[in-house]
Amino acid sequence: MKRREVLALLGGAAAAWPLAGYAQQAGQMRRIGVLMGFAEMPEAQANVAAFRDGLQKLGWTEGRNIRIDTRWATPDDAVSMQRFAKELVALQPHVVFSPTTPATAVLLQQTRTIPIVFAVVSDPVGSGFVASFARPGGNVTGFILMEPTMAGKWPELLKEIAPRVNRVAILFNPATAPYAEYFLNPFKAAAASLAVEAIVAPVREVSELESVVATQARAPDGALIVMPDTFMNLHRAEIISLAAHHRLPTIYSDRIFAERGGLLSYGNNRPDNFRGAASYVDRILKGEKPDELPVQAPTKFELVVNLKTAKALGLDVPLQLQQRADEVIE
Q: pLDDT (tens digit, 9 = 90+) per residue, 126-156?
């Protein structure tokens, strides 16, 4: 073979090497860690299914080009949450999906380099996860659960469905809702504008639920708001039962409460947030950095009214409210 031909052959091979290397890298298996700050209940599984479905629609299929390592930890099991966070970080995933505030906080104790995407965090700036919505500034970004102004809508809806209400207590667990002030200030402002007494009611243990709810029921015309909180979600059956037993009109942020017997709910569509988080995981896997992806606020909200519960409480639901509702449970 002549020298010119040899050089041409070598030059062609060298040009092909980077392309082959890129193709191999593009086709390699990517690893996604998932730290769920929920109990493994049907609605939480549905949210994870929405996340996986979002990934699949973007071309990511488990077993073909991604591997997903999932850990479930209930919000009141801090030991397991810490252990699972360490396990996932030790696997060195390309990105970690941590939907909730407690899960994201625990992961940030373990890594400040692996990208983290959240889906239903309430106050990422106040929690120290990001510097700002527009410029997250670190290894974390994602989708918030709802704007703090939502807390002003809850007492308004309670007054609309139960006009005699003059006291409203807002329930939350300080351990699993460290962002409580994010909602408390708008709640207090709205209550004051409605001439309603605003009562802050922290609950740290399940055993405290009975006494807190009973205290609110001792005088007539009381009502409850259940703050978005993984602890409250975990113990929703007890809360719904106590509200019914003490005949307290109660509003929730998650439609699952109204579907299970709560009076009404008003909040965002959670599966939408999980699908949105999948889009951010996709972009990170394709090379974008978390600090390049602004934190997103939800755009879809749902009002659900349970007429059966309203009737049991002796409440007549205004027709206008029923017409505004996305779903009326009869």
A: 999 999 999 999 999 999 999 999 999 999 9
Look-up of token digits 């909730």: 100
Answer with the residue of higher pLDDT: 1 or 42.
42
Structural domain that includes position 158:
150-269+301-329
108 and 78 in a common domain: yes
Is 127 contained in some domain? yes
**Contact indicator for 300, 268 with CB cutoff of 8 Å:** yes
Q: Which amino acid is at 20?
A: A
Q: Is 54 inside any structural domain?
A: yes
**Edge-to-edge strands, sheet with 116-121:** 66-72, 30-36, 95-97, 116-121, 140-144
Q: Which token pair is 298?
A: 């939800």
Rounded-to-integer distance, Cα 132 and Cα 198, Å: 30
* Total number of domains constituting the chain: 2
Beta bridge partners, 168, equal 198, 223
pTM score, whole prediction? 0.86
Asked if residue 319 and residue 207 are part of one domain, the reply reads yes
Residue 207 belongs to some domain of the structure: yes
* Token pair in block for residue 57: 């629609």
Strands (E), 151-271: 167-172, 197-202, 222-226, 250-252, 264-268
The answer as to whether 11 is a domain residue is no
Question: Looking at residue 5, what is its pLDDT?
Answer: 43
Above 60 in pLDDT, residue 101? yes
Average pLDDT of the chain to the nearest whole number: 91
State whether residue 235 is helix, strand or coil: coil
